[in-house]
Design brief:
about 700 residues, OB fold (Dihydrolipoamide Acetyltransferase, E2P), Rossmann fold, 4 domains, about 20% strand, binds adenosine-5'-diphosphate, binds magnesium ion
Length: about 700
């Protein structure tokens, strides 16, 4: 039962002044269920009284004592304070209040009985408590039967107010369990009601550690429910997608076969497997929504090209969108070199095209002359119209917002094109080298099918990673020179400066000047975001052709850039980069047969998380492992970035520790959805009422 001895009548909450309601609203608490799910941060134990003598033996513990006031004085030395002596049969304790109201001094008069809770210490004048919590009580007043909740509270919202509001809410709550007895038995879950009541008002003997680390069965039930709601709604979204129309792309024909022949390599087993998965999806008459995950360098581009070939063989266009011009350009060159000799027109569209070129490209795209279109987010502009778009490929999908991805998908023909069903959407393949750990994939991307390339092409040698203090720059420069002597190339990446692109640019220019002066025999290039597209392209082409030894770059080379002869990567101020960014950057080397090295220059002293990041980089080159640690260091919200996580943050479950619950919730969701709409609806109404929006992928 609630600890409050005097329960306010049920109507209290309804007559609550609107200011209180708006304060509750600021915490997102609108309904009784909201209040019921507003769970305590911790508890205070007011269920027991110990004798003053006993309290003296429990140093460093918070204890509650009860007794009569035998003396009460306002003293002025060494400073103004209220000093109250309380005695029981076993001894006496001095309560000291350094800040107090006049009314308190009056209230705490000799003869009054009080309960005081705090830490009892042996002071100069004997046992004392400084600023204890206290309340005036009558002899024999009952003790609360449960621990007292301490809630997360906003400004201007007192614990007393929240406690009362929650007591009232729980009295009115619809406690019906959304899970049947059979389900609760199967997953060993306690009832919803007992879980909620236990968490608000734990019995005095509750396992406090289990409450604190959320492993208590009552917590498990709450987390299970939360995850179940998430799985249900994600799976519903998935079912909705399956009921939409897409044009099947059934033909693995002449182009597909010819493409495989012109490739300068054979596919790895992992590539072969994902190609099969994608090919099967493309044949369906509902839209594919597949995420192709593969570590940097695992060879996702060619998989995308093969998927595009199937779309083209089936009489449709395919479009590939990349987040930067450098990357789009690289894809264009590589894929056009494979496809154009096979008679396929590949169009190129980015923001930096001249008006005339752009008009021409748009025209080729709209007429259907261009079968494959490659570009940047310029592709989602209104002026871009496709003849028959059947497949959307998004590279480095995490670099795009949800809106941008949807915009491209919505460019599917709205009907009218021969063979199209009105309202159908293109199939979609997204690629990412920032691997999403399985837990996140299941909880945030449950409406994505996932293909994983878990194997690197043969002949790669792992990248050796070293951390080097900035002060030893000279040695690093010597390293760069030695590599160049052996005919190998290097990247020199300049620090990320979040606040200012201009500053970042400046450091790149400075580093370029510094290296040019230190290594006059070497050809040193510079590429950054402010260069014109042709200039960027010219530098990248020269680097690819081996005409530049050292490429000084900003993070524009972060994603996708593929120059196999580059085998040395230097990253300045590595401590300023995030883990996934470091991993992406490092992925630019180790693409050829030569042993590659990545040197992470840092400026000490390092903060805790920066040190963790650099140690992780040194310890592993496995992108999935790095993503897992990144998730640990940053938590899912930051890991996904605001763009992607929407409001999907889980309140109770912790993906780092609760994977097993995700699995169970997912299993149950799968079971309930087709058979038990009533349960599904009731559960979603309880947990997600009005908050389903975040599920849009
Ligand atoms: P990412 O997955 O990072 O996008 P890319 O698609 O850029 O990787 O591929 C990296 C490099 O590996 C490219 O040079 C590509 O041509 C090459 N590659 C891809 N698949 C294979 C393979 N099966 N065998 C050999 N090299 C391959
Ligand atoms: Mg790539």
């Amino acid at each position: 039962m609630p600890p409050a001895a005097k329960k306010p009548p049920a109507k209290t909450a309804r007559t609550t002044p609107s200011t209180s309601a708006s304060r509750l609203a600021r915490l997102g608490l609108y309904s009784d269920m909201d209040l019921a799910l507003h769970l305590p941060l911790r508890y205070e134990d007011e269920t027991q009284i110990v004798s003053i003598h006993e309290a003296g033996l429990r140093s460093l513990q918070s204890v509650q004592v009860e007794g009569h006031i035998t003396a009460s004085d306002v003293q002025y030395r060494p400073r103004r304070q209220l000093v109250v002596t309380v005695a029981d049969e076993t001894g006496q304790v001095v309560l000291r209040f350094l800040n107090f109201y006049g009314s308190q001094a009056t209230q705490l008069a000799v003869g009054v009985r009080i309960r005081a809770r705090g830490e009892l210490r042996q002071g100069f004048f004997g046992a004392e408590m400084v600023h204890p919590n206290y309340k005036v009580v009558l002899e024999g007043a009952p003790l609360p039967a449960s621990l007292t909740p301490v809630y997360p509270a906003g400004e201007g919202l007192s614990q007393a107010f929240l406690r009362k509001a929650i007591v009232v809410a729980l009295e009115r709550l619809d406690w019906r369990d959304t899970l049947s007895d059979a389900v609760r038995n199967k997953y060993r879950l306690q009832s919803f009601e007992s879980a909620v009541r236990t968490l608000h008002y734990p019995p005095p003997d509750a396992d406090e550690n289990a409450l604190a680390d959320r492993s208590h069965p009552a917590w498990i039930r709450m987390k299970f429910d939360e995850l179940l709601a998430q799985q249900l709604s994600l799976k519903r979204a998935q079912a909705a997608r399956r009921s939409r129309n897409a044009c099947p792309l059934p033909t693995v024909g002449a182009l597909s076969a010819a493409l495989l022949k012109v490739l300068p390599f054979t596919l790895t087993a992992a590539q072969q497997r994902v190609v099969t998965e994608i090919s099967r999806d493309l044949q369906a008459s509902f839209p594919m929504q597949r995420l192709l995950q593969g570590d940097v360098g695992s060879g996702k581009t060619v998989v995308a090209a093969i998927a595009a070939a199937q779309a083209i063989d089936s009489g449709f266009q395919a479009v590939l969108m990349a987040p930067t011009e450098i990357l789009a350009d690289q894809h264009f060159r590589k894929i056009a070199a494979w496809m154009e000799p096979l008679g396929i027109e590949v169009a190129w569209l980015t923001g930096s095209l001249k008006k005339k070129q752009k008009t021409a490209a748009l025209e080729r795209i709209a007429s259907g002359a261009a079968r494959l279109i490659i570009g940047t987010h310029a592709l989602i502009q209104d002026s871009v119209e496709f003849e028959r778009l059947g497949l959307v490929l998004v590279d480095e999908q995490h670099r795009f917002g949800v809106g941008q991805r949807l915009a491209l998908r919505n460019k599917g023909f709205g009907g009218g094109a021969p063979g199209s069903t009105p309202g159908s959407v293109p199939h979609q393949l997204m690629m990412s080298a920032t691997p999403i750990p399985r837990t996140l994939a299941m909880t945030y991307y449950a409406d994505l099918e996932i293909s994983v390339i878990d194997e690197l092409p043969p002949g790669r040698s792992p990248v050796l990673t070293r951390t080097v203090d900035q002060q030893r720059r000279e040695e690093v420069i010597a390293r760069v020179e030695a590599a160049a002597r052996e005919g190998r190339q290097a990247y020199w990446v300049c620090p990320l400066i979040e606040e200012s692109e201009a500053l970042q640019l400046q450091t790149a220019v400075d580093s370029h000047a510094m290296l040019s002066a230190a290594l006059p025999e070497l050809r040193i290039g510079l590429v950054h975001g402010r260069l014109k597209q042709e200039e960027k392209q010219a530098v990248m082409t020269a680097f690819t052709a081996g005409e530049i030894d050292v490429l000084v770059a900003t993070t524009v080379i972060e994603v996708g850039v593929d120059v196999p002869n580059a085998s040395l990567m230097v990253i300045e101020h590595a401590e300023r980069f995030g883990l996934s960014q470091l991993h992406q950057l490092r992925g630019r080397v180790g693409r050829g047969a030569a042993a590659s090295i990545c040197l992470l220059l840092y400026q000490g002293p390092l903060g805790g998380t920066a040190r963790q990041r650099l140690m992780t980089m040194r310890a592993t080159t496995d992108g999935f492992e790095i993503a897992r640690r990144d998730l640990e260091i940053r938590g899912p919200g930051e890991f996904l970035g605001a763009r992607q996580s929407g409001d999907a943050m889980l309140r109770f479950a912790d993906l780092a520790t609760d994977q097993w619950l995700v699995d169970q919730a997912s299993e149950l969701a799968q079971e309930l959805l087709p058979h038990d709409t009533a349960t599904v609806d009731a559960h979603l109404a309880r947990w997600l009422a009005g908050r389903e929006d975040f599920l849009k992928v």
